[in-house]
Design brief:
The chain contains 14 helices and five strands. By secondary structure, the protein is mainly α.
């Protein structure tokens, strides 16, 4: 009986300690796995940060945009390289590879681009902001700036982000936006996406009256390109000129019809020219000619650095009825008016009136064209990403990351 009891204790002890060793081994393995996964998670976070830190410094300095170059396969190759360096000699770590996804993060994605533009515009309002700079300065007062850039390269044109999207802003849309406002500034609501995009455009793009010291660019009339998307500086300048004159003509016609004194003077002149029923048609013709002449003068004033109010009054009205009737008006007439909006203000309201997606894509066009001109002759904005999604597998556990600038 004693021998049997001792044998039972030995068997029990063997079973107990065998089970304990199995549990201990499992615990140690689980601890190794958890440690390996924890290390993978921490290192993966560092590695993805490292990839995000490879943003293009020229793109950042010139346009305030963060973006790194490469495809999903490039990101996976870098993660594999980092993992081999860190885990290659550690038998308890089983790195099973990574899968990266950059779709939805390309800088040509309007959501990504909009977010980056808004951040860059907000940063530009800080006192510490240093604007991009280059050769040259603002156009002298009174000088009508006309660039000579004409885009002819078919491959460059084919790869423009706005390719195939030619929706345009019309003079009537501009009138609808500013009619009844005391100034254009009232239209641009601070804090809205449209306001921030206009702010970004003011800082990073030239216009036909001010090159802003931004140095060499393909187009001199960049804000005008955003509005018109013509392949030449001259075409963009003419397109904006026609829109400003068209919008001003409608607004000036409204003013003429609402001013009793001018209305009476035109009525009297029409009756002298064509007494009877024909006076009505003559009156409308005089109104149209007078409003158009005033609009052309408005454009000249804007290009000379003067201001033109949304709605005119006697002090800001320049063209006399006599000069219209006698066809003697020539040159620019400056009444000395200091109230109203500048040429850039009128550009801003045209840009604000645009479809947002078209506006963003034409901004992308200019960035891509100028980056090709200044830095990389094969630059394509779509090959730069503003974030990444990736999944690493370590010791059978998947570790996911999603990052953006």
């Amino acid at each position: 009986m004693k021998a049997d009891k001792r044998g039972s204790v030995v068997v029990f002890a063997c079973v107990f300690f065998s089970g304990l060793m199995i549990l201990l081994t499992a615990f140690i393995q689980a601890s190794k796995d958890r440690a390996a996964v924890g290390s993978g998670r921490a290192l993966g976070n560092l590695w993805t940060d490292s990839i995000m830190a490879e943003y293009d410094i020229n793109l950042l300095n010139r346009y305030g945009l963060f973006g790194f170059y490469g495809l999903s396969s490039d990101v996976e190759a870098k993660l594999d390289h980092y993992a081999e360096y860190s885990f290659g000699e550690k038998n308890y770590v089983d790195y099973e590879g990574s899968i990266a996804n950059l779709s939805g993060y390309a800088l040509t994605d309007t959501e990504i681009f909009r977010e980056q533009v808004s951040k860059a515009a907000t940063a530009s309002m800080a006192e510490s902001f240093i604007a991009p700079s280059g050769q040259g300065g603002a156009v002298s007062e009174g000088e009508e700036k006309r660039g000579s850039g004409t885009l002819r390269n078919g491959k460059v044109i084919d790869y423009l982000p706005s390719r195939g999207n030619d929706r345009a802003v019309t003079a009537s849309a501009i009138v609808d936006l500013i009619r009844g406002k005391s100034s254009i500034e009232d239209v641009l609501k601070k804090g809205a996406d449209g306001y921030l995009q206009n702010r970004y455009i003011e800082v990073y793009f030239k216009n036909g009256a001010d090159n802003k010291g931004l140095g060499e660019t393909f187009f001199e009339n960049e804000m005008e390109y955003i509005i018109c998307a013509d392949k030449s500086d001259e075409g963009n300048m003419n397109g904006v000129r026609n829109r400003i004159i068209g919008a001003r003509e409608v607004l000036n016609m409204i003013y003429l019809n609402s001013d009793p004194e001018k209305n009476a003077a035109v009525t009297a002149a029409a009756n002298l020219i064509a007494p009877g029923p024909g006076a009505i048609l003559v009156k409308q013709g005089i109104f149209a000619a007078w409003a158009f002449a005033e609009s052309v003068n408005d454009y000249k004033l804007l290009m000379a650095g003067r201001k033109v109010p949304v709605m005119k009054d006697d002090l800001s009205w320049a063209i006399s009825l006599k000069s219209i009737l006698e066809n003697t008006q020539s040159g620019m007439i400056d009444t000395g008016n200091e109230r109203g909006d500048t040429y850039e203000d009128y550009l801003n309201v045209m840009i604000f009136a645009m479809d947002e997606e078209v506006r963003l894509m034409r901004m992308m066009d200019l960035i891509q064209i100028n980056m090709r001109l200044l830095y990389y002759d094969d630059f394509l904005l779509k090959t730069y990403s503003g974030g990444l999604d990736c999944t690493m597998t370590v010791n059978g556990e998947k570790i996911a990351y999603s990052k953006g600038y």
